[in-house]
Amino acid sequence: MDVISEAVATTRAGRAVAVRNRYAGSWSRSFPEINGTGLHLVRRGAPWLVPEDGRPIPLGPGGIVFVPHGRPHGFRNAPHEPEASQDVEFVSCCYHLDRGRVHESLSGLPDVITMVLDDDRHPALRPLTELLCQHAADTRPGSDLALPAVVDLLLIHLLRMWHDGTGAAAGPVVADQRIARALRMVNQEPFRPWTVRQLSEVSHMSPSAFARGFTAAIGERPGAYLLRRRLDHGAHLLRRTDLPLGAIAQRLGYATEFSFAAAFRREFGIAPGRFRGRERASARDRAGSGGEVAGEV
Fold this sequence. Notes:
By secondary structure, the chain is an alpha+beta fold. It contains eleven helices and ten strands. Strands 9-6-3-8-1-10 form a six-stranded mixed beta sheet. A four-stranded antiparallel beta sheet has the order 2-7-4-5, with no helix packed on it.
């Protein structure tokens, strides 16, 4: 699995949320820090992006704001104090991660990235943005599955667009190819009960050398990374399937449902059964509200 696929697969463990924002007159809107990844698509008007650090940035129709690791930011109708009257519409969406962190390949990107739709170089982006706008207010059956699928595709194309524009390679995120090989195997099969010894053998390294190299490259001990990826996959299965807890535990390599539940509770702070119930209640609430925001601040 390539690094872009790995990054999107990791965010997929989170909750996809989308909202359509409409403002008139003098207005401003702040987005707090989240544990996850977000993006905004300007549909109408010319809002100003206000990063946490740096000067306000002018946007226009077709403007895209990509927030890879959830840093706080905002929008307003003028570069400083809201003054000039302006009607604006933009769609915001994000993947909220319950715990853990975004994929390590995203952590090296800037806090906020601005891009513009380019139909010649990236013709798939415009129809995807139209789909996102539709699903941001969609309450029909199937919307809970459709929205994450659209966000997945948007993230893939935005990451490709970023790599194309910067010349950044979409290859392994670590220089040591032995560690990169082990990472690819874990990300391809996060459900497999990997051990540090198995991965060190795959990497043709001693367990101690592998552990040191892995920690230096990823910033996390191998055991902690393996556990996080496995439980991220468990959260995805709880959210997206009706598999019994015992079946999920077995698929993730746990000996019993109870050992899986204990590990999941330590990682996410909630029992897996309650997590599944909360996510389904949240999905029903989003479907009932339609997720649309309009107004003047």
